[in-house]
Design a protein that fits this description.
The protein is α/β, with parallel strands linked by helices. Among the domains are: 136 residues, no CATH class; 84 residues, 2 Solenoid (Alkaline Protease, subunit P, domain 1). The chain contains two helices and 53 strands. The strands form four sheets. It has a 25-stranded parallel beta sheet, with no helix packed on it. The chain has a 24-stranded parallel beta sheet, with no helix packed on it.
Length: 534
């Protein structure tokens, strides 16, 4: 036999509640008895009244309850002011809330619960707690003023939170979670955060964070992760693209598998392009497979790379590499490996510290392998042992320290020497045609040996303007100083003057000698005559 209930007004709770027919109505009674009655009602509501085939409505208004349902509420003023009263229409439904002119508290799903003014639980086992909350998905839960859970098993926790997607969770004031997954739906736990996509998540500390895409995650405030498995770990970090990763504050990674992990609040890193990676503090990688590993370094172009020790380095061009500290590589395949080195041009290479390589060629670019070396021109080279060597010209080569080769295929193979002109070479070994770098202290001419030459000691190097069989004239040479200690070069005019003077002196000597001989002959003839007469 069903128990008979009646309603009384609870002064402790400020609303009408269901009590036994034997309970006294409004009047003097203890506070504990009123609270106990309220507890009875809540227990009945929680049980869903599955063991009875009764309905219950209370509140003094126009509450409506279906079979095995409970509807409790009153108008806000307690004066039966006209409005929309709570409604529980399905088996086991519970609707508790005050009368409202903006919308009725409604529990229209089986075993649903709506608690709060204008709250709505409209699907099986849905629960809506708070003013104007909506739980419209099966087993959905909305808790907090104006929160909404609109998909199956969705959960919205916090004022104005919104969960729309199977299994999603929006936890935080103004949080939004969209998209579902059988394993785990989207989870937006930070205030004003947004998570869209199966297994996407915004951490509780990530206020205003955004995660959109399957398994996308935003872990800190204002972080943005867009794409399947994209991750924004630092505050205000941005990761856009599948598997894109921005780890620290203000880092930015854009592109599939792009990674920006070396930044921070004051020196963020930026990676832009598929599989681009900016791992150095304040580094920038721009282009597919571009990698910037050195602090404040930059790599621009397909597979352009700066090394981990390449602080302030720049690699610009496809497959360019700058691995030296403060090095610069510009051009396809350019390589600047030495500290403070520069390689500019296709396939150029500057591997020595402070080396400079400039030039390009279809076969090979300039190569400066020694410290402080300079190579300019396609296929020009400075060997690794040729410290401070300079090679300028296509195919110019320097093989010894401080050598200089200027011209197409010029070759300076002697230390401290200079090869000038196309094909010019240097020779350091003395021979019958050159003194090389050896000492020249005397010379033998016509059987006579001359010596005491200025600059007779070993030479510091040689200067060549040609090669054997390809000699050149030196033109426009200024007159050199002529003296016992002079080491100046003598031009043709000076030699002409010397030769002319010598010739004149020889002619004068010849005339004087001839005159003297004539006089001598005359004297001899006179002596002979006198002797003969006597």
């Amino acid at each position: 036999m069903n128990r008979i209930y009646r309603t009384v007004y609870s002064e402790a709770l400020g609303t009408w509640i269901a009590v036994s027919e034997n309970t006294a109505g409004r009047g003097k009674r203890s506070k504990s008895s009123a609270i106990g009655a309220a507890v009875i009602v809540i227990m009945v509501a929680g049980a869903g009244m599955n063991s009875a085939h009764a309905q219950y409505k209370a509140g003094g208004g126009n509450a409506t309850a279906g079979t095995n349902a409970i509807a409790i509420g009153s108008d806000p003023t307690g004066t039966n002011t006209p409005g929309q009263s709570p409604t529980a229409t399905q088996n086991g439904a519970v609707a508790i809330g005050g009368n409202s002119t903006s919308g009725a508290t409604t529990a229209s799903g089986v075993n649903s619960t709506a608690f709060g003014t204008s709250s709505q639980a409209t699907n099986t086992a849905a629960s809506a707690f708070g003013q104007a909350t909506i739980a419209s998905g099966q087993f959905a839960t909305a808790l907090g003023s104006a929160s909404q859970a609109t998909a199956n098993y969705a959960t919205a926790l916090g004022g104005n939170s919104f969960a729309s997607g199977n299994y999603v969770v929006a936890s935080g004031i103004g949080a939004t979670a969209l998209g579902g997954n059988a394993a785990m739906g989207a989870r937006a736990a930070g205030s004003d955060s947004i998570a869209i996509g199966g297994q996407s998540s915004v951490a509780s500390a990530a206020n205003s964070g955004i995660a959109i895409g399957r398994a996308a995650t935003a872990s800190s405030s204002f972080g943005v992760a867009l794409g399947d498995s994209a991750s924004a770990g630092g505050a205000a970090g941005v990761a856009i693209g599948q598997n894109a990763k921005a780890s620290l504050a203000n880092d930015m990674a854009i592109g599939t598998n792009a990674i920006a992990t070396g930044g921070g609040a004051t020196s963020p890193s930026v990676a832009f392009g598929n599989s681009a990676a900016a791992t150095g503090s304040g580094s920038t990688a721009f282009g597919t497979l571009a990698t910037a590993s050195g602090a404040t370094s930059a790599a621009f172009g397909y597979a352009a790379t700066t090394g981990v020790n390449a602080v302030n380095a720049l690699a610009l061009g496809t497959n360019s590499t700058a691995s030296g500290n403060r090095s610069v590589a510009v051009g396809s395949g350019a390589n600047a490996a030495g500290d403070f080195s520069s390689a500019i041009g296709r396939t150029t290479s500057a591997t020595g510290a402070g080396a400079t390589a400039l030039g390009t060629n279809t076969t090979a670019g300039a190569s400066a392998a020694a410290a402080d070396a300079i190579a300019i021109g396609g296929q020009s080279t400075v060997a690794s042992t040729a410290t401070s060597g300079i090679a300028v010209g296509r195919g110019a080569a320097v093989g010894a320290a401080s050598g200089i080769a200027l011209g197409d295929a010029a070759n300076a193979s002697v230390a401290g020497s200079v090869a000038l002109g196309q094909g010019a070479t240097t020779t350091g070994t003395a021979s019958s045609v050159t003194g090389g770098t050896g000492s020249v202290s005397n010379a033998t001419i016509g059987g006579t040996t001359f010596g005491t030459f200025a600059g007779a000691s070993s030479a510091a190097g040689v200067v060549s303007v040609g090669a054997s069989g390809s000699e050149r004239r030196i033109q426009n040479v200024a007159a050199g100083l002529i003296g016992a200690s002079s080491t100046d070069a003598i031009n043709g005019s000076q030699l002409y003057t010397v030769a002319s003077t010598v010739g004149s002196n020889i002619a004068s000597l010849s005339t004087s000698t001839s005159t003297g001989l004539s006089t001598t002959n005359s004297n001899v003839a006179s002596l002979s005559t006198s002797t003969s007469t006597g």
